[in-house]
Design a protein that fits this description.
CATH architecture: 3-Layer(aba) Sandwich
Helix content: 40-55%
CATH superfamily: NAD(P)-binding Rossmann-like Domain
Radius of gyration: 18 Å
CATH class: Alpha Beta
Largest sheet: 7 strands, parallel
CATH topology: Rossmann fold
Number of strands: 7
Shape: globular
Number of domains: 1
Order of helices and strands: EHEHEHEHEHEHHEHH
Length: 268
């Protein structure tokens, strides 16, 4: 087994995945990228630039493809995987009634099923490198309190939070750490998407209109490093996420009142 630690990152072709890849790569880790975006992964490889990087086209909805990707990366990394970062995800906004069947199923499949499949596939590899190995999942501030205008997305991120807590219990005796990141609005290309197919108003503009901050993606990368090496189960990232976590715990009535008054249907 190689002495160089290795991390496999889904959604490694851009955004949070790329930032985490660069952060770990700069600290001497062998980095594996999984994504459906070949060009994006090539750009991430070029930015890492040290030769200790491997890319594999992966659709996280395909359970068998997970096994193939992790086995191939393990071989490339010298027989070890220390961290699997379940990060791939897509946004979906708008009221539930505006979301199409196809949009709902795609969001559930990528954001929730993809995390479950990744955890199943990762276990055998992480067991080999325990007790310092880690399954890291990207949840969200939307997994702290349900977000009006993002019911499906919130459901998936509550699910990721639940998976993290469940596996933290299931895998404790195996010495495998299970952690989640709960970022708020992070400056990544996802903010430039439309909430759903029925609107042309980008997510970034809606965040600005609401007076909320957009957190630099580098903060998530540093939080990922801390989560992998620390004892905290859930790590909030960004002012909005930290404020929401505090309020949901200590001021639930106020949070409910604010969320009920804040929702603005698309087109208004």
């Amino acid at each position: 087994m190689s002495d160089r630690k290795a991390i496999f990152i889904t959604g490694g072709g851009s955004g949070i995945g790329r930032a985490v890849a660069l952060y770990f790569g700069a600290r001497g880790w062998f980095v594996g990228l999984g994504d459906i975006d070949k060009a994006g992964m090539r750009e991430t490889e070029e930015q890492i630039g040290n030769g200790f990087v491997y890319s594999h086209v992966l659709d996280v909805r395909d359970r068998a493809a997970w096994d193939e990707a992790l086995e191939a990366f393990s071989v490339a990394a010298g027989g070890r995987i220390d961290v699997v970062f379940n990060n791939a995800g897509i946004p979906l906004g708008g009221s539930l009634l505006e979301n199409s069947t196809e949009e709902i199923e795609r969001c559930l499949d990528i954001n929730l099923k993809g995390v479950l499949f990744g955890a199943q596939a990762a276990y055998a590899h992480l067991q080999k490198t325990a007790p310092s190995s880690c399954l890291l999942n990207t949840a969200s501030a939307a997994g702290i309190y349900g977000t009006p205008g993002a019911s499906v997305y919130s459901a998936t991120k509550f699910g990721v939070r639940a998976i993290t807590e469940s596996l933290d219990g299931e895998w404790a005796e195996d010495g495998i750490r299970v952690r989640s990141l709960m970022p708020s609005f992070i400056d990544t290309p996802l903010l430039d998407h439309n909430p759903n197919a029925r609107t042309n108003e980008g997510i970034r503009q809606r965040v600005r209109d609401a007076g909320l901050e957009i957190t630099p993606v580098e903060e998530v990368a540093a939080a990922a490093w801390a989560a992998v090496h620390g004892e905290k189960l859930h790590t909030t990232v960004g002012k909005t996420a930290k404020t929401m976590a505090f309020a949901a715990r200590w001021l639930p009535g106020r949070v409910r009142k604010q969320t009920r008054s804040s929702f603005r249907p698309l087109g208004q």
